[in-house]
Design a protein that fits this description.
The protein has 417 residues and is α+β, with helices and mostly antiparallel strands. It has twelve helices and 18 strands.
C-alpha cells in the first residue's frame, strides 16, 4: 500500500505570484490554499521593523501599504542569475542576502503546505522558465542552482525542475478528450515562455514524453516589464522623467528607470541614491517635480507607486476602459490617468517581442499556424487584453483557451516524471 505521505509537491515560484500543488502517486493534483482560501499568493516578503516580524503575500503588501515601518521585497525571482542575489541588505539590524530572502519565502510555502497536508513533503518539482537569463547559459544555470540551494536549505530531500510551459501543458492535457497539437503560452511576471506540444489521453500514460515536446522558446519579458513601462509613461513624468531643465536638457533618466523596476526599487532608498537625487535639483526648472521625487525617495513610496500602477493595469485590462491611478498618498488629490488606448500603444513593442517569440516556437516545431488545434494561455499576464488581441491577430485561425492562470503550472508540475 502506498503511504499517504508519498507524493509530489509542485511549487510555481513566480516573479509576481506563487502557487503550490500536491498529488499522491497516481493521484490528481490539488492546489493548496496559501492565504485563507486563496490558491495563489503574491511573491512578497515584508520585514516588519516595528515588531521584528516577517510577513508574506497579501499580508506583506498590506503592511507596506498601511505604512508599517519595514522593508518590502518583491520580484525576488528576477534576481536569480544576477550578482545582486548574493548582495546583502540591512534588515532589522542584520545583514541578509537576497538568496536568504528567497529561501525564507520557500520555507513559508513549505510550512503552509505541511500545515495543509498534515505531514512534511519531501519530493519537490519546481517550475523554471525556459530562460532565467536570456543568451547567457552560465547565468541561467546559476539561477537554477540558486533555486536548488534554497530548496535544499528548507528541507526538501528530492528536488527536480520542469519547464513552466510544459507543466502547464501537462495540466491542460487532463481536460482533453482527443489528441491535440497545442501552443502553450505562459506569460508570468518576469518571462514569456512558449511550448508546442502534442497532448492527449493516450499520451498521458507514457513515461517518456520527450518526443511530444516539439519546440520551446522564451524571452525575458513579463508583467513586471509591462508595469515598468506604464510607470515610466504615466507616473514618473510627475517626478521629472523627461522634464526639460536649463538649456532644454532632460533630467537624467537612470534613476526613474530603476524606481520603476520592481526588484530594484528598494535600492533607491539608500543614502547615496537620495544624495544623488538631491543633487539633480539644478537639472530641474520646475521645483515642484523635484520635491515630489525627493518625497518618494525619502518616504519610500516607490513600491506603493508600482503597486498602484499594477492594479491600474489590471483594471484597465479587465474593464477595457480608462482608469485613474490614485497617488494621493504622495500628494493630496494627485491622480494619473491610464487610458486604454495608451496602454495598448505603450506596451506594443514589448507585446510584439512576446508574440514574435511565440511565432518562432511554432516555426521551430516545423509547423504552420493551421497545424495548431489551440493556444493554451496560462500565467497571470496572459490575461492582459492587449496581449490577447496581439496574439489573436498573429494566429487568426487558432482558438485561444484560457486555463488556470495562477494554478495551472503548479498543478502540472506534480504530473512531471
Amino acid at each position: 500500500m502506498t503511504s499517504s505521505r508519498a507524493g509530489t509537491l509542485g511549487i510555481d515560484f513566480g516573479t509576481s505570484n506563487s502557487a503550490v500543488a500536491w498529488a499522491a502517486p497516481d493521484g490528481t493534483a490539488r492546489l493548496i490554499a496559501l492565504e485563507g482560501d486563496a490558491l495563489a499568493m503574491p511573491t512578497a516578503v515584508f520585514y516588519n521593523a516595528e515588531e521584528g516580524s516577517t510577513h508574506f503575500g497579501r499580508e506583506a503588501i498590506t503592511h507596506y501599504l498601511e505604512g508599517t515601518e519595514g522593508r518590502l521585497m518583491r520580484s525576488l525571482k528576477s534576481l536569480l542569475g544576477s550578482p545582486l542575489l548574493h548582495e546583502t541588505t540591512l534588515i532589522n539590524n542584520q545583514l541578509v542576502s537576497f538568496q536568504d530572502i528567497v529561501t525564507t519565502f520557500l520555507a513559508a510555502l513549505r510550512q503552509r503546505a505541511t500545515e495543509s497536508l498534515g505531514h512534511t513533503p519531501q519530493r519537490l518539482v519546481m517550475g523554471r522558465p525556459v530562460h532565467f537569463v536570456d543568451d547567457d547559459l552560465a547565468r541561467d544555470q546559476q539561477a537554477q542552482a540558486s533555486l536548488l540551494q534554497a530548496a535544499h536549505a528548507v528541507g526538501f530531500q528530492e528536488v527536480s525542475f520542469q519547464l513552466e510551459p510544459i507543466a502547464a501543458a501537462l495540466d491542460y492535457e487532463r481536460r482533453l478528450s482527443h489528441e491535440s497539437t497545442v501552443l502553450v503560452v505562459d506569460i508570468g511576471g518576469g518571462t514569456s515562455d512558449f511550448t508546442v506540444v502534442r497532448l492527449g489521453p493516450e499520451r498521458m500514460t507514457r513515461t517518456d514524453r520527450t518526443s511530444d515536446v516539439l519546440a520551446t522558446t522564451g524571452v525575458h519579458i513579463g508583467g513586471t516589464d509591462f508595469d515598468r513601462q506604464l510607470n515610466l509613461e504615466h507616473v514618473m513624468p510627475l517626478l521629472g522623467y523627461r522634464h526639460l531643465g536649463p538649456q532644454d536638457r532632460p533630467v537624467p533618466s537612470s534613476l526613474f528607470m530603476d524606481l520603476s523596476t520592481w526588484h530594484l526599487i528598494h535600492w533607491q532608498y539608500q543614502p547615496r541614491v537620495i544624495s544623488h537625487a538631491q543633487g539633480l535639483r539644478s537639472n530641474y526648472t520646475d521645483e515642484h517635480l523635484h520635491a515630489r521625487l525627493m518625497r518618494v525617495l525619502q518616504e519610500r513610496h516607490g513600491h506603493h507607486i508600482a503597486h498602484e500602477v499594477e492594479q491600474g493595469k489590471i483594471r484597465c485590462s479587465l474593464q477595457d476602459q480608462d482608469t485613474s491611478l490614485d497617488l494621493s498618498f504622495l500628494e493630496p488629490e494627485l491622480l494619473a490617468t491610464l487610458h486604454a488606448h495608451a496602454m495598448r500603444d505603450h506596451l506594443a513593442p514589448l507585446l510584439s517581442q512576446a508574440v514574435a517569440c511565440a511565432q518562432a516556437c511554432v516555426q521551430a516545431a516545423g509547423l504552420r499556424d493551421s497545424d495548431l488545434d489551440a493556444i493554451y494561455l496560462t500565467g497571470g499576464s496572459s490575461a492582459l487584453r492587449p496581449f490577447q488581441r496581439a496574439l489573436q491577430a498573429a494566429f487568426a485561425q487558432v482558438p485561444l483557451v484560457e486555463g488556470d492562470l495562477f494554478g495551472g503550472v503548479a498543478s502540472g508540475l506534480v504530473y512531471s516524471r
